[in-house]
Specification:
Elements (H helix, E strand, L loop, with lengths): L11 E3 L2 E3 L3 E3 L14 H12 L4 E8 L11 E2 L6 H12 L4 E7 L17 E2 L13 E2 L2 H20 L4 E5 L5 H6 L14 H18 L5 E7 L10 H11 L5 E5 L6 H4 L14 H8 L6 E4 L5 H9 L5 E3 L1 H6 L3 H6 L17 H6 L14 H4 L10 E5 L3 H12 L3 E5 L9 H4 L10 H13 L2 E3 L6 H7 L3 E4 L3 E3 L12 E3 H5 L8 E6 L4 H12 L3 E6 L10 H13 L3 E3 L2 E6 L3 E6 L5 E5 L3 E5 L2 E3 L2 H5 L6 E4 L9 H14 L1
Parallel strand pairs: 3-4, 3-13, 4-5, 4-6, 6-9, 7-8, 9-10, 10-11, 11-12, 12-13, 14-15, 14-17, 15-16, 17-28, 19-26, 20-21, 20-26, 21-22
Antiparallel strand pairs: 1-2, 18-27, 23-24, 24-25
Helix pairs in contact: 1-2, 3-5, 14-16, 14-22, 19-20
């Protein structure tokens, strides 16, 4: 172990359990469970993190009462049916030296769906609605409160029976325990409201129920937000007062930031790359200085050096590094062995981790699609026959395909036409506050080089090169080009595309309209870039909002930035034509045109066209031909990397 990480790799003892290091995989939804109990996919997923060296694995939330079913794919700990799955999970992680906690959960009013797809009936301390899910809850009766409190105790007993080391009550992000504490959400006038002590009664009752139901060595933690970042949420002062009052009741506090109840608060549930590393740690440290309970911190920490510094400075006793472990389950072992260059660093894009959960599909990572697919791709399988493999294109998809193919034992050469690897990721990193996206290029390039891939730049693959090299298999990853359809009147106007703007290849006038067909990060990013350069910017999107196709926390944060910059957003607007100083739009569902005058430059962000030149030249190729990524059809880096993985496994 490197001495520079001595704090991160020091053990931590709570009650009679010793956690081997200070790296925690926090509880997070995976959309892997089926039938509301842990299954083989979830066991394999968490075992990969335990094998990778994480000291503490916190399993995703488990409902403690029937009214806690906030999605159709969570865990439920309301019956003994959950015990066998939890036992297999605990045994698998314990075998790798990891400590295992479960999360006990009731969302209160924060319910987003039902299994039937109908509007949910949510129960909360009082009938006070939330902003984000537009849910009007029903006030809980005293009978229901008693049932839920006892449900926490019974669920904890089941997880202890399954062999877990402890449980964590989820009071963070505006969920039920926080709703009872919050005087703007809890307006009861009985024993559970009306005063500070009464608003804390629910949490105290839950603690008592769990302690009664479990043994003296069973660990009990509380996950809570240091502040909700919500106009109607808990303030930092209110949280501090509550945690000081609860000091000694729990074995640890796991502190984070934000609330599910509002769009602004939810940004912090999985803070994207626009947020600084460890930005919430000072608030957690301020609480730690005033309580005796050990404090864990979670929020935008993806490098082991940063985690070590937080512990060294006394700001936390344990650090949650969940997305870092989603991106690279082996990160703890690599850091302990001083192999920092081998760590696949998370870029906080949110696309396949929290983004997949919000789409209702299993968790993954755009850089490491093996995540969430451990049962299929968890172990590299050597190829039965070694082949000569040619990869055309050095973007993320081509790099992934080359790395995996070489790891399986194939003889792989990757050709890139330009002088730099990375493809469109090189453009993505030029967007404002998106520089970390370039990490996908660094990480995948390193993987390809480690695997022994020969990389040849400044060489465009054509039929003659293929004829000379005589590969057994070709993987086409030639990407795409900006789509430039015919726009009526374009010959009389100043029309450029988003790639040209990002590369600073064109001069742009003082008044700009960005025509955004795809409603992703490109249109939003170009609009922000130009506004920060002093332009008056209008962003016309064909959808109902900018960023409609990207993960909601990324989109919602960006929408706030565009608003603050004074960018005018025109929704439901399709580009129809242009002249010297006017852009003509058509409402996508109405019949009235939208005419925007005083425009100096029209910027096209209209998607991409697949680059199929090489594919056309290879008609009749006798070997295996795989087409991946944007040259199959333009999408995102996630699809390109996943298809690169699949192509390499099929060789």
């Amino acid at each position: 172990m490197t001495a520079s990480l001595a704090h991160l790799y020091s053990p931590l003892t709570i009650r009679r359990t010793t956690i081997k290091n200070r790296i925690m995989s926090t509880g997070h939804d995976t959309t892997l469970p089926t039938a509301f109990v842990p299954n083989d996919a979830l066991v394999a997923y968490q075992t990969a993190r335990a094998e990778g060296g994480a000291g503490l694995i916190v399993i995703q939330v488990a409902g403690v009462h029937e009214t806690a079913r906030y999605t159709s794919h969570l865990l439920m700990a309301t019956s003994d049916a959950c015990i066998p799955g939890y036992r297999r999970l605990a045994e698998a992680c314990h075998a790798q030296g990891a400590t295992v906690f479960g999360q006990l959960f009731h969302p209160g009013r924060e319910i987003m769906e039902t299994a039937e797809g109908t509007a949910p009936v949510a129960y909360a301390p009082s009938a006070v609605p939330n902003q984000r899910f537009h849910v009007m809850p029903r006030a809980m009766s005293r009978v229901m409160i008693d049932e839920i409190v006892e449900g926490f105790g019974a669920a904890a007993a089941r997880l202890e029976a399954a062999g877990l080391d402890g449980v964590e009550v989820v009071g963070s992000h505006g969920y039920l325990p926080a709703q009872f504490v919050n005087p703007r959400v809890n307006i009861r006038d009985d024993l559970y409201g009306g005063s500070f002590d009464n608003r804390l009664r629910f949490i105290r009752d839950v603690v008592a129920a769990i302690r009664r139901a479990t043994g003296p060595d069973f660990i009990l933690g509380l996950r809570f937000s240091t502040e909700d970042s919500d106009l109607h949420g808990l303030t930092a002062e209110e949280v501090l007062a509550a945690l000081k009052s609860l000091d000694g009741s729990f074995d640890y506090f796991n502190l984070t930031v934000g609330s599910s109840a509002s769009f602004g608060g939810a940004l912090h549930i999985a803070p994207a790359m626009a947020f600084a590393s460890g930005y919430g740690a000072p608030a957690a440290a301020a609480i730690k200085r005033q309580v005796s309970t050990p404090v864990f911190y979670t929020g935008r920490v993806n490098q082991p050096q940063d985690a070590d510094r937080l512990i060294a400075r006394g700001e936390a006793d344990m650090v949650g590094m969940t997305r870092a472990l989603i991106c690279d389950p082996e990160m703890p072992n690599k850091a302990e062995q001083n192999c920092f260059d081998d760590i696949r660093a998370c870029i906080a894009c949110n696309q396949a981790c929290i983004g997949h959960f919000q789409l209702g599909v299993p968790i993954s990572c755009i850089q490491h699609p093996e995540t969430g697919r451990e049962l299929r791709y968890g172990r590299i399988t050597p190829a039965a026959i070694r082949k000569r493999v040619l990869v055309a294109g050095g973007g993320p998809g081509g790099l992934k395909a080359a790395a995996v193919a070489a790891s399986r034992g194939h003889d792989v050469t990757l050709y890139e036409a330009s002088d730099r690897l990375g493809g469109q990721a090189l453009l993505a990193q030029l967007l404002p506050r998106r520089s970390e996206f370039g990490g996908i290029v660094t990480n995948l390039t390193h993987e390809a080089e480690q695997a022994g891939v020969r990389i040849v730049k400044r060489t465009r693959v054509d039929a003659d090169l293929v004829g000379r090299e005589k590969p057994d298999a070709i993987i086409l990853a030639t990407g795409a080009l900006p789509r430039r359809p015919e726009v009526p009147g374009a010959e009389t106007a100043h029309v450029v595309d988003a790639w040209q703007v990002l590369r600073d290849q064109v001069n742009v006038g003082a008044s700009v309209l960005v025509a955004d067909w795809r409603c992703d990060w490109i249109g939003m990013g170009v609009a922000e870039k130009l506004a920060r350069a002093g332009c008056k910017v209008r962003l016309a999107v064909t959808g109902y909002m900018p960023g409609q196709r990207i993960q909601s926390y990324v989109r919602d944060h960006w929408a706030g930035v565009l608003h603050d910059l004074g960018i005018e957003v025109i929704p439901y607007a399709e580009l129809y034509g242009v002249d010297a100083d006017t852009v003509y739009l058509s409402h996508v569902s109405g019949k009235t045109p939208i005419i925007v005058d005083g425009i100096d430059t029209l910027v096209l962000s209209l998607g991409h066209d697949a680059e199929t030149t090489l594919e056309a030249q290879l008609v009749g190729f006798a070997g295996n031909l795989h087409i991946i990524g944007d040259c199959m059809t333009p999408r995102t880096a996630e699809e390109a990397v996943l298809e690169g993985l699949r192509a390499a496994w099929e060789l």
